[in-house]
């Protein structure tokens, strides 16, 4: 096989690969867009979880009040040494 035939076959293989990639491009773009959307949804869910936890902590903090905290001389119900 002479070098020109080998180069011709190589060019045909590269052209075939380029055509296959171009044919599969819509599928690849669709998959990439689905991955981006799934990542965005996961980010929104994560932010909602953070907002929910902080909201619950804020509400609990409102109802806990300042009188419910531990007192300086309190032993929290344990035995008091004498």
Helix count equals 1
- How much of the polypeptide forms β-strand, as a percent range? under 5%
Helical content stands at: over 70%
Rounded to an integer in angstroms, the radius of gyration calculated over CA atoms is: 33 Å
Can you count the beta strands? 0
Tell me about the biggest sheet? none
The helix/strand order is H
Give the integer mean of the pLDDT values. Answer: 87
Distance between the termini: 104 Å
What is the SS-derived class?
A: mainly alpha
Question: Which segments are poorly predicted (pLDDT under 50) over 5 or more consecutive residues?
Answer: none
Shape: rod-shaped
Could you explain how this protein is built, in words?
- The model has no long low-confidence stretch (mean pLDDT 87).
- The protein is rod-shaped and about 105 Å long.
- It has one helix at residues 3-64.
- Helices cover 76% and strands 0% of the residues.
- With 82 residues, it is mainly alpha-helical.
Topology overview:
Blueprint: H1 3-64
Descriptive keywords:
mainly alpha; 1 helix; 82 residues
Summarize the structure.
The protein is mainly α and 82 residues long. Helices cover 76% and strands 0% of the residues.
């Amino acid at each position: 096989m002479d070098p020109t035939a080998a180069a011709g076959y190589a060019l045909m293989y590269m052209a075939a690969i380029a055509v296959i990639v171009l044919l599969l491009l819509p599928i690849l773009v669709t998959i990439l867009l689905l991955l981006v959307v799934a990542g965005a949804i996961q980010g929104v869910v994560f932010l909602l979880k953070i907002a929910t936890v902080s909201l619950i902590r804020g509400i609990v903090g409102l109802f806990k009040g300042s009188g419910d905290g531990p007192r300086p001389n309190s032993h929290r119900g344990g035995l008091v040494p004498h």
